Amino acid sequence: MNTRTFTAKPVGTVHADNESFLIEIAGPFRPALQGLDGFSHLVVLWWGDRVDTPECRSETVCQKPYTRGPETIGIFATRSPARPNPIALSVVPVIDIDSASGIVRVAYIDADDGTPVLDIKPYLPATERVRDVNMPAWSSHWPQWYEDNQGFDWAAEFTFEE
């Protein structure tokens, strides 16, 4: 097994409250926002710093995280934040990008306030969207498109309480 280590340097921070979501890009990385205007969605990679513990990093199996799922499931078959490396990915709808201030306002992101952002990429349908997708039977009733999430009762799909 490869035992190399890596260093990740946050490029920004998520700011979230009940009314707004934004990503503040650190000063040295603000020039990297050039050319993002016009993209309706971004892919945001962020660090799950609140689950960056030896216990969470050693989890490889979950006990029934999904209501209709199997009794046990491997971490790689979930979107659980507890993983060997707490790297998370969110596709977010862009509201506005202010390159000068480094503020990227988004409609929603499933990261907590203060979460470190590792990278931002434009969402590209030619590389991110897949037409023919298979899902396990226990999740086949989930919405197939991002836009269809509105109104779907995601809370009923998980066995954990918030």
TrEMBL record:
Keywords: Methyltransferase, S-adenosyl-L-methionine, Transferase. GO terms for biological process: methylation. The keyword Ubl conjugation does not apply. Transmembrane segments: none annotated. CDD domains: UPF0066 (cd09281). It comes from the Archaea. This is SAM-dependent methyltransferase. The lineage of its organism: Archaea, Methanobacteriati, Methanobacteriota, Stenosarchaea group, Methanomicrobia.
